[in-house]
Amino acid sequence: MKQLFKILVSIFFSIVVITASGQGLHFSQYYNAPLLVNPANTGFNPDYDFRLGGNIRNQFANLGTAYNTMGIWGDARIMQDRFENGWIGIGGAILKDAAGGAGSLTATNVSGSIAYHQMLGYNSLLSGGFSLGYVTKTIDLSKLRFDNQWNGQFFDISIPANEPFAYNQVGYLDLQVGINYAFFASDNAYFNAGISMMHVNRPRESFFDASIANNQLDRRYTAFANANIKIGNLWIVNPNIYVSKMGPSWETVLGCNANRNLSGDGYQQLIVGMYYRNNDALIPMIGYQVNDLKCTFNYDATISSLSSINGSRGAYEMSIIKSGIFSNSSSGIKCPTVKF
């Protein structure tokens, strides 16, 4: 029994260390967290001057160790009259992860981003941007138990853990860069793709001293592609694909959502969709949009081997986005878009 507990604790400790060193912020609705996906998305919001968004994700709640990810962000287009057929986008985001299990691991990322957008002729747009964030991660070591503290009957917190922790909090600067390209084929279709690189500066992230574990973060590469296609005056279909790689880990999400015109003028829209995360989950989503306010909800139904543990109940997620036009806005640059 003692050996079994040692094995279980060792496995748990390994998970904590891996999470602390490599866990990236994660939303199934990546398309509703544009600044997280690619800094070149900053200020790319056809027909609007600004947008404000919020995202919340809850997973593993049924296992008793809920993992919550929350974020608020905003961006705006500025200097639309300073450049010929171009503009600058500025934005910022505050993102936080909080693990409810032993150790109470939390991560907070505060970042600012800037991008430049240039129309190429009448139907193409090229964008480039970067973001700089400050990340802090904290763990409560008093809530962790280790194999050295097992006395044969229970974990005795009075016994020294003898683990080489040097810190319970780490912080570092994190640089991300990206480019986007959009092609506006007609009033009924446009296509958009981009690539980005996170952890460009490869910051060190470890609760151990550098002499024990240097642990520089691997660069994270992300690519996405999507399209907006209008069908009659009833539907706008939005197929998406997202691929991310960090070290040996890959994530692929693909699927489609569609907006149904409910009011005839696009003022009210129903949003439905289905996505698939490779070897992990099916993700149905539903939402509603009233004028420039959009709210969407999705549920991750686990289809991996973890389904036998969590009963296929993975995560739920919600996002809210408010777009608008500044009251003193000039005509400026309005790139083409697909709308009802």
Number of helices: 3
Q: In CATH terms, what is the fold-level topology?
A: Porin
CATH superfamily: monomeric porin ompg
Distance between the termini: 65 Å
Which spans of ≥5 residues are poorly predicted at pLDDT below 50?
1-23
Radius of gyration: 22 Å
- CATH classification, class level: Mainly Beta
Structure write-up:
- This protein has about 350 residues and is mainly beta.
- It has a single domain, classed as Beta Barrel (Porin), CATH 2.40.160.
- Helix content is about 10%, strand content about 50%.
- It has three helices and 14 strands.
- The protein has a 14-stranded antiparallel barrel.
- The chain is globular.
- The N terminus is likely disordered.
Characteristics of this structure?
340 residues; mainly beta; Porin; 14-stranded antiparallel beta barrel; 14 strands
Question: Topology, please?
Answer:
Layout lengths: L1 H21 L11 H4 L12 E10 L7 E17 L2 E14 L6 E15 L3 E15 L30 E18 L2 E10 L21 E12 L3 E12 L2 E13 L6 E10 L3 E10 L2 E10 L4 H4 L2 E12 L16
Antiparallel strand pairs: 1-2, 1-14, 2-3, 3-4, 4-5, 5-6, 6-7, 7-8, 8-9, 9-10, 10-11, 11-12, 12-13, 13-14
Gist?
With 340 residues, the protein is mainly beta. 9% of the residues lie in helices and 52% in strands. It has a single domain, classed as Beta Barrel (Porin), CATH 2.40.160.
